[in-house]
Amino acid sequence: LASTMTIGARASLRSTLLPRSTEVGANVAQHEIDELLHEVAAVLPPGHEATERSRHLLSKAQTILQSDQSRSAEIEYYLQQVRRILERTQQRKAWSDLYRSRLWTYLVSWTLLALVVMAGIGLYRGEFAALLVASAGAAPDAPWIVFAGMTLVTACAGALGAILGVYAGIARRQRTEYGYFDRKYGLRGLLMPLIGFFFGVLIALAVAALFYFAGVAPNQTALILIPIVIAFFVGVGQESLYGAR
User: Fold this and answer.
1) DSSP-based three-state secondary structure for 180
2) pLDDT, tens digit, for every residue of 25-70?
3) What Å distances lie between residue 63 and 22, 55, 60, 84, 138, CA to CA?
4) Do 192 and 237 touch, CB atoms closer than 8 A?
5) Helix, strand counts (H, E) of the chain
6) How far is CA 61 from CA 20, 74, 79, 106, in A?
7) Of 107, 159, 163, 172, which one has the fewest beta carbons inside 10 Å?
8) DSSP H or E stretch at residue 161
9) 139-146, long-range: CB within 8 Å, 24+ apart, which pairs?
């Protein structure tokens, strides 16, 4: 049977566990509320969930401070919650900046590598084929020797298209996700050039088989641009292909 005695005992137990007042004065609490409001406006992105929650907690602390200063322990609790939100947000921003800088370094390296390979094969196509023949000991008219340059250029074009898609995704994310980059997004950015390269290889192999059976030599025709252009645009739009955008 419930009675007023048991309810009173529970209320007194709660008041013992959660004290109503601390040694923090009203002026000190008001000063800290003002500082936290300024820090929230300076550090947290506008419209973010953490920003709205921090302002809500500070508003509750301000209301309690104006109505009942004896509840200073509750005010200190709300202020401590805001401090934790600020600490977590600063840690998240630090990790986001680290992921973004590493992703940019990776993408720039991929871009330079792909451009160098494409330019080298385009300028020194004969030397590249001779190098393959000398290193592998194969016949100069072997199909994989004839189509190796086209395959590699097409694969690099797919990687470049994927890198361009990642650049566009970074700019889009900075507008919609407050510029935060997590490990999952960084991993996707790392994989997209590899997937674009793989798609380029598949496209090049399909076109090479078509050229081989049609008797078309890739070093004597402008048709080599067909797989390169296809691979580039497939790399650019690969996020839309598997619904990740």
Assistant:
1) coil
2) 677 878 888 888 888 887 777 777 888 888 888 888 888 888 877 7
3) 17, 12, 5, 21, 84
4) no
5) 10, 0
6) 13, 8, 7, 46
7) 172
8) helix 148-176
9) 143/208, 143/212, 146/217, 146/218, 146/219
Tokens 């200190």 sit at which residue? Answer: 76
Most confident of the following: 75-84, 181-190, 199-208, 210-219: 199-208
Give the residue among 90, 93, 61, 95 at the shortest CA–CA distance from 77.
61
- The tokens describing 12, both together, are 């007194």
pTM (two decimals): 0.70
Taking the C-alpha atoms of residue 183 and residue 212, their distance in angstroms, rounded to an integer, is 44
Burial (0-12, 13-18, 19+ Cβ within 10 Å), 14: exposed
Secondary structure of residue 2 in the 3-state scheme: coil
CA angle 238, 48, 192 (to 5 degrees): 15
Q: Are 30 and 65 in contact (CB under 8 A)?
A: yes
b/e per residue, 185-204, with b = 16+ CB within 10 A? bbeebeebbebbbbbbbbbb
Indicate the burial class of 33 (C-beta count within 10 angstroms; 0-12, 13-18, 19 or more).
buried
